[in-house]
């Protein structure tokens, strides 16, 4: 079955960096567009970034553009999100997501807290 397992979250000071990982299994990872989302307390889940399967092209939400980088290692079936210059408003649970055969799959999420 499809599984997405995020890791790499934690507590970081403003201006710091974190790298999130999402280990994928149960499907052909290299063929799928992958996305990161996040959900802050009391807010709706919002899209953060995507990376396509074909050429690896990427797109970002305006709020993270220039600070976050999405990447993938198809040999390791792993999705990454490098987050630099973190701000307090980046505090959220971060999820990876894929869409296969009309079904959306989410990981369990990893908490990122930006605080001094």
Task: Describe the protein's topology.
Layout: E1 3-7, E2 10-12, E3 18-25, E4 34-39, E5 46-51, E6 58-60, E7 68-73, E8 78-83, E9 92-100, E10 103-106, E11 110-114
Parallel strand pairs: 2-11
Antiparallel strand pairs: 1-3, 3-8, 4-5, 4-9, 5-6, 7-8, 9-10, 9-11
Quick overview of this protein structure:
With 116 residues, the chain is mostly beta strands. 0% of the residues lie in helices and 53% in strands.
List keywords for this structure.
single chain, 116 residues, mainly beta, seven-stranded mixed β-sheet, four-stranded antiparallel β-sheet, 11 strands, 0% helix, globular
Mean pLDDT metric: 96
As a percent range, the share of strand residues is: over 45%
Count of DSSP H/I helices? 0
Number of strands: 11
N-to-C SSE string, H for helix and E for strand? EEEEEEEEEEE
Shape: globular
What's the N-to-C terminus distance? 40 Å
Rg over alpha carbons: 13 Å
What level of helicity do the residues show? under 10%
The assigned structural class equals mainly beta
Low-confidence stretches: none
How would you sum up the major sheet?
7 strands, mixed
What does this 3D model show about the protein?
- The chain is mainly β.
- It is built from no helices and eleven strands.
- The protein has strands at 3-7, 10-12, 18-25, 34-39, 46-51, 58-60, 68-73, 78-83, 92-100, 103-106, 110-114.
């Amino acid at each position: 079955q499809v599984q997405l397992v995020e890791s790499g979250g934690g507590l970081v000071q403003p201006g710091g960096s974190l790298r999130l990982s999402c280990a994928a299994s149960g499907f052909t990872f290299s063929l799928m567009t992958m996305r990161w989302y996040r959900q802050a307390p009391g807010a709706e889940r919002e899209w953060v970034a995507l990376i396509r399967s074909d050429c690896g092209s990427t797109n970002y939400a305006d709020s993270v553009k220039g600070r976050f980088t999405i990447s993938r290692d198809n040999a390791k079936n792993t999705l990454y999100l490098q987050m630099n210059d973190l701000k307090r408003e980046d505090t959220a649970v971060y999820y990876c997501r894929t869409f296969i055969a009309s079904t959306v799959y989410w990981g369990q999420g990893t908490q990122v807290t930006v605080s001094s």
